[in-house]
Each structure stands twice: as C-alpha cells, then as structure tokens.
Amino acid sequence: MGEKSEIKKKYILDKARTVFSENGFKSVTMKDIVDACEISRGGLYLYFSSTDELFLSVLSSETEEDDEETITAALTGTATAGDMLALFLKEQKKEILRKKNNLTVATYEYFFANKLAPKDNPLKDQFDTAVRIIERLIENGIESGEFYCENPLGCARNLMYVVEGLKITSKTVGISEEAIDKELMYVLEGLVPDELNINDD
Amino acid sequence: MGEKSEIKKKYILDKARTVFSENGFKSVTMKDIVDACEISRGGLYLYFSSTDELFLSVLSSETEEDDEETITAALTGTATAGDMLALFLKEQKKEILRKKNNLTVATYEYFFANKLAPKDNPLKDQFDTAVRIIERLIENGIESGEFYCENPLGCARNLMYVVEGLKITSKTVGISEEAIDKELMYVLEGLVPDELNINDD
C-alpha cells in the first residue's frame, strides 16, 4: 500500500473510532462512516468492506499502542513492583473513567453480536496479557519482599475480573473514581504483608 | 386492574421477555412485541406505551422473584454460612451460564442507552442487595469460626465485582463452568482459616 493510501486508511480509522465511540457498534452503518469521513461510498469500500472489518481494525490499532514491548520495558525498569502495579491500575482506572473517544460500549456491542473463537478474540488476548503482566509484577514483589501472596496467578485473575466488573458497572450503573480506588485498594492491600499494612481494617 | 387484565399483562410480559432475551434491547420495536404476542397494536398500547416501559416491567417482575424475604429466610436457616455462600454463588453461576431466556445482553443494552439515577437503577439495587447478603453470610461464618476475614464488606464487594466481570466475559469472550468455579473458589479459599484450607496452593 502506498504512503497516500496508508494516510487515507488511518484517516478513515480515526473517523470510524469517533463514530463507534459516540454510537456504539450495533446501529452504525457504512453510510455513517461515509458521512463522517466526507468521502464517497466507493472511496470507503476501497479500504473496508463492512463495519465489522472497520471495527476490528479500529480495535487492533488500539491494542498495538500498549503492546508487550512497552510492558517488558516497564517490567525491567527500576521502579518497585508496588509502584508499577499501582501505575498499571491507574491506567486501567483512566480507561474506565474515560469519557471521550471511549470504545467500551461499542466493543461490548460488537462482541455480543460476533462470537469469535478464543484464539481470534482480541478481548481474550488483552485480558490474558494483562493477567500475565500482573502475575509477573506480583512475583517480582514477592521476590523483593514487598508483597506476600500464595497464588500470584489467582490474585492477578481476581484483579482483572474486578477491573472487568468495574468497567461494565461504569457503563450501566455509573461509578465514581473513589469507588474504583476502593476496589483496587482492597486487592492491593491483600498483597501487603500484615506488618506493613497500615490501612488494615 | 381486573383479573383478565392481569392475565393479559402477564402474558405480554412473558412474550416480551422472550423477545428481549433473543434480540437484546436496542433493536427491539413495539411491532416485534405485537407480532410475538399475536395481538393488535392497540391491544399492546393499552398496557405498555414503549419498549422502555416494557423492559423495565420485565426486569422488575424478575427481581421480585428473588426478593429480600427469600434471602432473610435463607439467612436464618440451619445451614452453615459456608454452605449458604456456596449456594448463593451456585445461583450466580447458573445465571451466568444460562442459555435460554437470558436477559443479560438486553439489560446491558438498555442501561447503555438509559442512564438512571442510582436510586432508580434496579441494577444498582440488585448489586447492593447481593453485597449485603454476602457480607452478612461472611459475618455469620466469622462468628461460627468457619471463616476468617478482616473486611467482610470489602470481600463481599470484591466477590460481586468478580461476578460482574464473569458475567460480561461470558457474553463477549465466552467462559467455561470450570473457569467460573476457579474464580469463585479463589475468593472462598481466602475466607477459610489457613489450618482448614486443604486446597492451599
């Protein structure tokens, strides 16, 4: 693909992202994308043949940003495990609370309608990657004596299911930043050896 | 409302429940309900004036079934706290795995589109009630020496956010019964004093 085509494709993906974040996935048509891009129908179909294809492209351009390289870099840094885990959770929290350009509802709507096999499902991929990162951070924290945990994988999965629970709750019931902090702190405090746990209650 | 009207209304709600569980909320129209009920449009509007009203009625006829009376009865029974907590979680699991007449997706779609104030939001109500029950069960278990837990409310909330996470995961990525068991057991094992925990790993 030529450079001009690449630029055009990226332009379409940017516009589509906005449309999906404002309207979800289910009710968005190719015409909506055409209108948002102010291009011809033929111009759009040159690059994408369906809203399904468009949405998956938007989603994958998304996940590339926080790919494993970044993560490995973070894991080999000089910060403590506790700091890094807190940083990771801060990112999750920011995503949950993000108002503008938020793809959460569109993502749910897409996957309600499209059942993908586990190996092709980018959501499963994201979840499993996050669990692996947290597990590693907990293990690092155990080695350095910051954390105490008998089952790092179990704790990592518990934390990520809580994050999923917070994410859907924020879209159906609404949730405050304080409430998110409280849930994440509950898990983090469980990792801190009793003698260090000043917030024990 | 006369008895005949009550029967008719219940008939419409039953049919609407099926339509919502098969198609979600967002794309369902009053005509879909008219068709499913095989009644006239006027016949439907006599009872309900919108799919919003219909859906909330379906949802509230739902929650009445597991109302607090049932719960209080369960809480004052002779079973151990551990047994009752396990029973409660078995019900949650059954709901997550339920294939037929499952309103989960429709419920998400309804609340994505309709932001209700916390005090009017039946989902928030359900969640808070569940948290209160689990907290009470944990407290009972602590009293009887079955459980050890420093923060029953925190643990109850953690468990319910995990349940929410499992629920949305089952609709987007898919989840096995074994995977659900693993997550719930992780929390339950955390409640059992170390000397009793044969599954410690």
From TrEMBL, chains A, B:
Keyword terms: DNA-binding, Transcription, Transcription regulation
DNA-binding region(s) in UniProt: 29-48
Gene3D superfamilies for this protein: Homeodomain-like (1.10.10.60), Tetracycline Repressor, domain 2 (1.10.357.10)
Ribosomal protein is among the record's keywords: no
GO MF annotation terms: DNA binding
UniProt-listed Pfam families: TetR_C_17 (PF17922), TetR_N (PF00440)
Transmembrane residue ranges: none
Start and end residues of each HTH tetR-type domain: 6-66
Name of the protein this chain belongs to: Transcriptional regulator, TetR family
